[in-house]
Each structure stands twice: as structure tokens, then as C-alpha cells.
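User: I'm putting together a teaching handout on how multi-component assemblies are represented. Below are the sequence lines for each component of a complex, exactly as they appear in our records. Could you produce the 3D structure of the whole assembly as C-alpha cells, so the students can see both representations side by side? Please keep the chain order the same as the input.
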Amino acid sequence: MKLLTGNDLVTGDVIWWTGSGWSRHVEEAGDVGDQGEPIALAEEGARRVNGPVIIDATMTPDGPRPAHIKDRIRALGPTVRPDLTLKPADPNAGSWVI
Amino acid sequence: MADPDATDTGGETLLRLRTDEVHDEPAVTLDAFLDGQTNATAVRLEAGDDARALLPRLGQLALVEISFPTFRDGRGYSSARILREAGFAGELRAAGDVLVDQLPHMRRCGFDSFAPQAPIDPDVLRASLSRYDHHYQRAADAAVPIWKLRHG
Amino acid sequence: MYKYDEYDQSMVDARVEEFRDQVQRRLAGQMTEDQFKPLRLMNGLYLQLHAYMLRVAVPYGTLDSRQMRMLAHVARKYDRGYGHFTTRQNIQFNWIKLADTPDILAELATVEMHAIQTSGNCIRNISSDQFAGAAADEVTDPRPWAELLRQWSTFHPEFTYLPRKFKIAVIAAPEDRAAMRLHDIGIELTERDGRLGAKIFVGGGMGRTPMISHEIRDFIGADDLLSYLEACLRVYNRYGRRDNIYKARIKILLHEIGADEYRRQVEEEFVAVKALGLDPPAAELERITAMFAPPPLTAEPVELDRSDPDFAVWLDQNVRPHKQPGHAIVTISLKLIGGIPGDASADQIDVMADLAERYSADELRVTHAQNIVLPHVAQADLPAIWQALTETGLAEANLDLISDIIACPGLDYCALANARSIPVAQKIATRFADLGRQRELGELKLKISGCINACGHHHAGHIGILGVDRKGTENFQLLLGGSGAEDVSLGKITGPGFSEDGVVDAIERVTDKYLEVRESGERFLDTYRRVGMEPFKEAIYG
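Assistant: Of course. Below is the structure of the complete assembly, with chains in the same order as your input.
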């Protein structure tokens, strides 16, 4: 599957395209298929996203899993500061990245 | 600082910090100026051209236009200073990908007219050109460097 | 320390308003990201993996307690309670909102701080010796010269769109504590015929093509320094490559045309530039120098009670002699075992500010090895300082030992990284946690970069590690034999790379081999230089 992601222009937060808007949680990301580019262009033009990119991912029982480690780190947060990730209480969050 | 005078020249905006008439002879390339059109009074330098090639006949030039193919290409700043340091008093025009936030630096390097390929908001330009009261370095403009203000 | 006058203050104040205006125009859609990016970068604002990152300048690594407390305040109010000290003596905040940055810069300006030119293709923060003004081996305090260069380079109209970034370091001692030879321009202050001047090195750098700088001028007087640098930069601005970002640093220009040809062009340009009156009068350097006058240090030498072994080790490892008898230079390690190299919490930053105010003439330094220095400490105060550091977890006695690791933020934070640097640093420090074992190994500078851009100085490590991406998996190459000090050299890759755990094992095999073959008095680097790569290669790969 293909995901559309980028950073919120104002806050810098990592955001994922859900199909109808943006979410901070990769679990809510939707497959953009071949529609990623026009959506990215429109959303960037509307200044809702900075640096949108289309990435590869696979669907898993836990939701979409980005193919590249960099995007998994973006999705979670820094592996060396679990307290600052989106899942501070999940001891297995780090192993999802690797 | 006087407001720049915006002149509409055939669809392209020309911002000038000079009060003399716009020079109307078309600018020739450096190669043409050095070989053939040796009587030209206006030259266009590309970013990679050596501005010092103009020095032997600087006196005959009324306008030198320096091209900025992208705003990231800063060679033109050095070209401008070299010409001003050699005493060039004619119009020095920055042309191409010239952005409003760059104009203060360009002016300090000796540019006194600008032909930006995208329009520049006059209010933003006015704020941008009057932002800094002082400058640390001596450059090609008339600004007195801060160290000179400190020590007289 | 340097104090702003009305002119300096007006510059940073105007810069805040300029950036406020630029941010507003970006948020209002009057600028594209492509146009805004170089403007935000010239104010130290990056877009990293998780958020915007703001790099705040610490000119030549010097700051006072008020400035340090402001960093803690920024960390608490606008970030997530911590900051990261960098190899160019700056500090980075990792979780910044674009809309907050003008306010952050306005707050910084109230304590004479800014983020000007901490990124972008311009002249960056001028770095220097963290022991400046305190070291016994310096010919003069290099910081007044660095401040002169700070002012000259700030908003330099000609050199703001250079082919690539430009880093300058100034030192004034034979021992190079600032990696001077690995800068675009390195300046070593020297004395000749009773006159101070600068030896100029050009074309050093790390990155994907590491190079050691060339000596371009053996002496230039203070009265000509700015003209000379103007000439050095102008030749680069005109002829540095702009067709390929990876070949755009000045080191490539020198490599391609040769140091002799570069020198010839600079000398020719210098003749032209010298006539322009660009150099301030001697009175300006004197004005600045007066502000760096040594603090009154009147303490008498004392015999310290070394009965607490932890204190004694810390004294031996992290405390250096001061040029003034009765005083000492303390390095506070930000390399806690298992911690993140260079990170400090807002509370720790406040503690260090308090210690500086109380015990170190109100001064702190940031080191290029990502530690903090209290430069002017009375020997008699060392026990109290150590006690306070111990209570806040900052008394790690590992300066210049294997766990005093330089590491870039790596893939945990950085958009350019290929691999995570910090977890490797943590695993190595944990493996070698035993301080006795570390001290047995002696001085061993280990440096880790998470990509080829080499922010973690891996080329200059006695042991260097470079993280790469191998088909989507983190892989680590090992280098041996680099140095960023006065015995500068570039490390060589040992061979095939390793997994994260594999590289830790490989390092242990390297250090075991070193212990086996070293001769008396040899550091790891000395042994490597004597025996070469082969014995280590054999130990690693068998």
C-alpha cells in the first residue's frame, strides 16, 4: 500500500493522510493508491502539510506498517526516548520500529 | 531610505533605486562585448562570467545587468562588488530569480536596480529595505560600518 | 565575556522582527517552502523527522549563567524539557513549532543570543577552544578574534549565498581542542616579532570527502585579517562548484585547482580588497579584548582531600590545570553511561548555570566533544562542585575516555540520517561502563555519525563509526586512526560493516588487541600508527 505523509506546516508534527484529512497516528493512515500526488499537491497548496511524500507500507493486523525504518521512526518517535514517543506506555513500541 | 521607484517596462517590473532615466539600449552578452559589439553601453553578465573582464572599458558602460539563474546562486553578489570597487557608477541591475528578502544584501553589494522574474510586494520590499539601521561590515553601499560608528 | 552594545542589540532585535515577518508570510502563503527554506535555515530552523529543530548559536562556545538559564527556559516552555549540545558548540531543540520560533528568538535576544547563520550556505557560528582564556598553553585568548569574525560574518552581504556552508574555527594554542584543521577555514593565532597574527588554513572538512586543510598564509596581522578572509571567501564564492551539492565545499575547490593556485588567487584578490578599508581599526579589537579580560582569580592553591576514590578519579579525569595557580578547568561530562551524548535536561542546564555563577566567574563553555566546561574554578571549590554534579547525575568521570563519545542525533531525529547513532553510543558506553577498564584503555576518542555527512566526526575518531543503510537495514562501518587534534589525521575503514551489536563486539576486539600490543605510554592512536591496520583487521575479522 501507499501512504501519504509529511509534517504539519505550523507545528511540525508528523502527519498521515487518512483519506479525508490528516492524523498524527499511522494506524489511521489510508492507502492513497495512485492518488497520492494530486492530494499532496492540493494539501501543500492549502498549507496543511510541509514536505509531503508518498511512501510504501504494508497492511498488518496492527495497521499500516511503513516499509522503511525512517518512516517507522517518524511514526513512533525517537527510539532512544520512549517517553517522548506516541506510545510511551507500550514497552514493545521500539521493536515495532526495528 | 527612499522608496524604490517601480517602473513598468513592457510587462516586467523594474525596481530602481536610481533617479536617472532608464537606459534603453539592449544589453549585449559579455562575449559580444569583448568581440564585435565593442561600442555597446550595456552588458549582461551571466552568473559565471568574470566581471573583471569589463574593467578595461568600464567607463563606456551605462548599465550592467547581472543574471541570477536561481536565488541560491550567489556569484552575482561578488560580481557586483567587483564592479563597484573598480569605480563603476552606472546602473547595476540584478535580473532573474531575485527575491524580496535578498534585495537588502544586493543593494549593499552595489545593485541599484532589480528585474525580478516574479512580482515583489511593494510593502514587503519597503519593510525589507528599511529593516536594519546599521551594518557590521563595510560593503559597496554608503553605509558606515558599526566599527566606524564606535570609533569614529 | 563580550557584552552587546546598542548596535549589536539592534541587529539581533531587527533579525527577530525580520524572521517574524518571514514566518508570517510563509504561513500566509506568500512564500513557497522552496523560497522559505533558505531563510529559515539562515535562522537555524530545520524540519527534522518529528518536528522543526532550532539550532541556537553559542558564539565560540562561550555563555554566561543568564544565557544558560534561558536555554533551560526555552527547553521547558517551547520544547520537551531538554536540549542537545552539538559538535559546533551550539545547542539544538528538537520539538519546535514554526509559529513559536519568532517568540523564541525574541526571548533569546533579551540575553544577547540568537540563531543567526546556524545553518544555510553562509558563514556559520565561529567555533573556538573551550579552554580559551584559561589554558596555560595559549598565546592569547582567541575569543576576541572570534568575536571580530562573528561581527564581520553576520549578515555579510556578499557571502550569504555561498556554494555551500562555511565553517571557521579560531584557536591560539599548540594543542588543538577545536578540530581546527577540519574546518573550511582554520585560524591559529601566533606571535611573530612581538606582534599577534593569524596562520590561515583553508579547505579542511569532513562530510563524504574528508580533507585536512592546507596552510595558505603563515602570518597575517590583525589589521589585515578581515581583508584576507574576504579575499579567501570571494575566490570561493566565485569559483566554488555549484553544479553538484556534494562537491560544493571549499575543500573540493582546493582539491581541484590545488592549494598553490588557490593561494595565488587569494593573494591577488587580497591586493584588490586591501585597498578598500574593510578592516576595523586596532581600537575595535582592543575594545572587544577588554571585555574578555580574565576574571579576578585570587584563590590560593590547596591540597585536596582525595580519600573519596570517586572524587579522586573525577579530579584526575575531568579537571585540567588552569593558567592561574590555585584554579582549575572543570569539564562536565554530558556522556552518562547509557545516556544520549550531548543531551541535557532543563534541570541539568539550570544546575550547570548555578555552578557557573557561583564557582566559575559566571562563565560556561560548550565543547566540540559535546560537553560543558566551567573554565575558572578555584581548586578549593572542586569538592563542592563535584558534590553538586553527583547529585544531578553529571559527575561521570570519563573525559576523553572511550565512553566520552561524540554522536550525531542520527536516525532517531535527523531527516538525513541512514542509521541510528545514539543506540550504538549507548551500547558501547554500557559495554565499557567499568571506569577502571576505561582508564586502562586511556585516551580513546570514539565518534559516531549516522550518515556520510559526518556530523558525528567519525573520520576524526581514534575509533570512528559510520552508520549506513544497507537494503533498508542499519549497518555500521568501523574506522580506525583518525584524529581531530593537532596530530590531525583521517580514519581508515577496517573492512565490511557490522550490525549494531556486531560493531560493539568489533570495538572490543580492537581494544583487546590494543592492550595486547601497546608499548609503554602509547595511546590507542599511537599504537595504531605504529603497527598499522593489519593486526586490528585480523583481530576483528579473524
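A couple of points students might notice: The first helix of chain A runs from residue 36 to 45. The two ends of chain A are 20 Å apart (CA to CA).
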